[in-house]
Design goal:
The complex is a heterodimer of chains A (317) and B (448).
Chain A lengths: L11 H18 L13 E6 L4 H13 L3 E6 L11 H10 L4 E6 L4 H8 L5 E7 L5 H16 L12 E5 L6 H12 L3 E5 L15 E3 L2 H7 L3 E4 L15 H8 L3 H6 L5 E3 L12 H4 L6 H20 L1 H6 L1
Parallel strand pairs in A: 1-2, 1-3, 3-4, 5-6, 5-8, 6-7, 8-9
Chain B lengths: L3 E9 L4 E7 L2 E6 L8 E4 L4 E4 L1 E6 L12 H10 L2 E6 L10 H14 L3 E4 L15 H6 L6 E2 L9 H10 L6 E4 L12 E2 L2 H6 L3 E2 L1 H18 L3 E3 L5 H12 L4 E5 L1 H5 L21 H12 L5 E2 L28 H10 L6 H15 L17 E11 L18 E11 L2 E5 L2 E2 L2 H17 L1
Parallel strand pairs in B: 1-4, 1-5, 6-7, 7-8, 9-10, 10-13, 11-12, 13-14, 14-15
Antiparallel strand pairs in B: 1-2, 2-3, 5-16, 16-17, 17-18, 18-19
Classes of the chains: A alpha/beta (317), B alpha/beta (448).
């Protein structure tokens, strides 16, 4: 793997292979010494143009468990905030000898620009770009679903026969996009439920089912319900009237939770707005994977960094 | 450099072969095997002779944005593309909203001499959309402004648009509208559709263009004014304009070469050289624009030549500038998109790139095309060659062309402006020589 920019680029076999390596990495986390020497001498830069403590520390933990050197480079307090361009920043990191750059950026496509620009030769991992994609989040979601469904027999399997319902702000969600491509590639059926204002125009051509009614989706049943965060600024742009109405129609409250089958997995990429898109009852229920998602995130990111930076990459380049 | 010029064996756009004799800035003779005694001879065997091209939509960036382009550098880009006249858009710094600025731009164009520079005046003060600029003063100035536009911004206030349409009737002016409903396009980055949803780029809906065009053709009908629509980019816009013309509304419309050739799929890699306003649209829109140009719904091709420095494009998509340079490549792109595809004949090209834009801008000297007694503004074009377009073919200051690395047909071999050569053997004539030719011609016009 040269870069990880989008889950659209992954084949079924590649995706399953990443999840299988992540299983191996998860095993490491259960050992007394949670560290592998695999990436000793490699430098991983976390280049964050947007605040995201969760994602950054997850990547940092992943790189450190693989014994890589980690440099955290955040836009705040660095030259980026003084108006240095993406190009200059990339060339600076290249000159420092970065082997992989994990990039979080508010502009959709910024990781693709970095990967194609020739400014830097390092492997690029998209850690969330604008409203485009967040591939490692989708990989950890798929990993979490596969583990819940298949337990210790998860290795080598995809998600055929699984139905995943994603609820909320699809329009602005990079998590939703990455999940749509990855989960369908893995054989799952994906259903999106949202106010019509928060679904992209042209979504009818996506490989998904569309619905506006969460109660209907709850009645229809689903193996997984994934709730997306609603950003406060959406309320001021006429996407929906107010938080109460949103919560009533599209929130996973206790009543809807009760109507879901006990085997339905409840997911949220975090951070949650408790009481808005998800009730505390739902977030803290045994069906919820919210905390598992966090620990699985480290395993999946270890797998991605390992595949990007271990011998395989040198063979490719 | 007055004196006689003989162009040997050119093929006119109707297919007939002819020699063209140019004397004192005027086409003095057409025919075969004309005498060339004492004249400079240009061998045009195998070349198409078109009337000098006229661009109704050019950004020359001067005054104020000279790092991107100057009147001189933009004029050179125009000449190498076969143009002999350009209309310089008003979004400079300061904005061309007073007689002083438009006269400055005109005089810079006159002294450069590569093309006739016709300044476009702003519709509103500072392009701010609040208050009419001094349209009458610009019309009466030495620049004789006839085209007014806030291009880059839409005159979105319906009442202000109505007043502007009415007011310019006093001097036979026209409002060239940049049709973009501002609220529907806040933060917009690319055509809104399946692809924008996938790429996570804020969508620029077709309706934001079509709704303004629909409103403005109805306003033009109501007040009995003519209106020109800049850079039409959607199939729906073509339908609205076709409907307006069928009602007899005095609307004219332009399409850019890039909207005739390129579609939104090029944006997949987030390469900002494809970022432009209005955005590249769907393949279906490209097809509808070609058909609209072929059936006369769209009157002209205009470049929207929009130079930007490298750093404005060498960056993330959503911070990159909108715009592409287009003067140097325009005729080649027109050949590729509508001539080679059978939508237009060369005689149509002469219309959409010369006589029709000149008529909209109320320019003299272009109505008859290549005819005895007409002003000698000519472009000699070799349609038979094909090249991989590269930065070395650009002559302006900026290199933000979307065609770099694309194979394009055709090449301008010669350009003649007011009877003197600006391009010979496919290369620009030296700046000083063109400037002195322009000076001689101007003196001749004043005293001769």
């Amino acid at each position: 793997m040269r870069h990880l920019l989008s889950t659209r680029d992954l084949s079924r076999d590649q995706a399953v292979a990443i999840l299988d390596v992540a299983e191996d990495m998860a095993d490491v986390a259960t050992r007394e010494v949670k560290k592998l020497p695999a990436l000793r001498g490699k430098t991983v830069v976390n280049l964050f143009f947007e605040d995201s403590t969760r994602t950054r520390i997850s990547f940092e933990a992943a790189a450190k468990r693989l014994s890589a050197d980690v440099i955290n480079f955040s836009a705040k307090g660095s030259s980026v905030s003084k108006g240095e361009s993406l190009k200059d920043t990339a060339q600076t990191l290249a000159a420092m000898g970065a082997d992989a750059v994990v990039v979080r950026h508010p502009s959709s496509g910024a990781p693709s620009v970095l990967a194609q620009s020739g400014w830097i030769d390092a492997g690029i991992v998209n850690a969330g770009d604008g409203t485009h994609e967040h591939p490692t989040q989708a990989l950890l979601d798929a990993f979490t679903i596969r583990r819940r469904l298949h337990r210790s027999a998860a290795r080598g399997r995809d998600l055929s026969g699984t139905t995943v319902t994603i609820v909320g702000d699809i329009l602005h969600s990079r998590v939703a996009r990455s999940n749509v491509w990855l989960l369908t590639t893995l054989g799952a059926t994906v259903r999106l439920v949202a106010p019509p204002t928060l679904l992209p125009v042209g979504i009818s051509r996506w490989p998904v089912q569309i619905g506006y009614d969460l109660d209907e989706a709850v009645s229809a049943g689903s193996d997984v319900v994934m709730m997306l965060r609603i950003q406060a600024e959406r309320m001021h742009a006429a996407f929906f009237p107010n938080a109460r109405e949103y919560s009533r129609r599209w929130g996973l409250d206790d009543a809807r939770l009760a109507r879901l089958g006990a085997s339905t997995i409840v997911m949220h990429p975090g951070p949650m707005n408790r009481g808005l898109e998800i009730s505390s009852g739902a977030a803290d229920s045994t069906q919820s994977t919210v905390r598992e998602q966090v620990s699985n995130g480290v395993s999946v990111r270890m797998a991605v960094l390992y595949l990007l930076l271990s011998g395989e990459r040198e063979e490719l380049s | 450099m007055s004196g006689t010029l003989v162009i040997r064996g050119a093929r006119l756009s109707d297919g007939t072969a002819t020699d063209i004799v140019v004397t004192d800035g005027v086409i003095s003779e057409l025919g075969v095997s004309l005498s060339a005694a004492g004249s400079q001879v240009i061998d045009a065997d195998g070349l198409i002779a078109l009337p000098g091209l006229v661009d109704l939509h050019t950004h020359l960036r001067e005054p104020g944005l000279e790092q991107s382009e100057t009147v001189l550098s933009g004029s050179r880009a125009a000449a190498i593309g076969g143009f002999t006249a350009v209309h310089a858009m008003a979004n400079t710094l300061p904005v061309a909203d007073t007689a002083g600025v438009v006269e400055q731009v005109k005089s810079l164009g006159d002294s450069a001499g590569y093309v006739t520079v016709r300044p476009v005046g702003a519709v509103t003060v500072g392009l701010a959309g609040q208050q009419l600029a001094e349209l009458g003063a610009m019309a009466s100035s030495r620049a004789r402004v006839r085209v007014f536009s806030d291009d880059g911004k839409c005159v979105s206030d319906a009442l202000l648009m109505r007043r502007a349409l009415e007011y310019v009737k006093a001097f036979d002016g026209v409002i060239a509208q940049h049709a973009q409903e501002p609220r529907l396009t806040e933060g917009a980055q690319m055509n809104e559709g399946t692809l924008s949803g996938q790429l996570g780029l804020a969508g620029w809906p077709a309706v934001a263009e079509e709704a303004i065009i629909a409103r403005d053709v109805l306003l033009a009908e109501h007040v009995g004014s003519r209106i020109h629509i800049c850079h039409v980019s959607t199939a729906g816009s073509v339908d609205v304009i076709r409907w307006a013309k069928s009602r007899g509304i005095a609307v004219t419309a332009e399409v850019t070469p890039h909207h005739l050739l390129l579609d939104e799929h090029l944006i997949r890699g987030y390469d900002a050289k494809y970022k432009v306003n209005p955005p590249l649209r769907r393949a279906e829109d490209v097809q509808a624009l070609r058909e609209g140009l072929a059936d006369g719904t769209i009157d002209i091709v205009a470049t929207d030549h929009a130079p930007h420095p490298l750093e404005s494009k060498d960056c993330e998509w959503d911070v990159a500038a909108f715009g592409m340079v287009g003067l140097e490549s325009a005729l080649s792109v027109v050949q590729a998109s509508v001539v080679d595809t059978g939508h237009l004949q060369w005689s149509d090209v002469a219309r959409v790139l010369s006589s029709a834009p000149a008529a909209i801008g109320r320019m003299d000297g272009y109505s008859t095309g290549i005819a005895v007694g007409g002003a000698a503004n000519l472009a000699l074009y070799d349609a038979s060659v094909s090249t991989v377009f590269s930065a070395s073919q650009l002559r302006g200051k900026s290199v933000n062309s979307p065609y770099l690395g694309h194979t394009l047909p055709g090449r301008i071999i010669g350009t003649i402006h007011n009877g003197y050569l600006t391009v010979v053997d496919g290369e620009l004539v030296d700046t000083d020589q063109v400037a002195s030719s322009a000076l001689v011609t101007e003196r001749g016009a004043h005293h001769g």
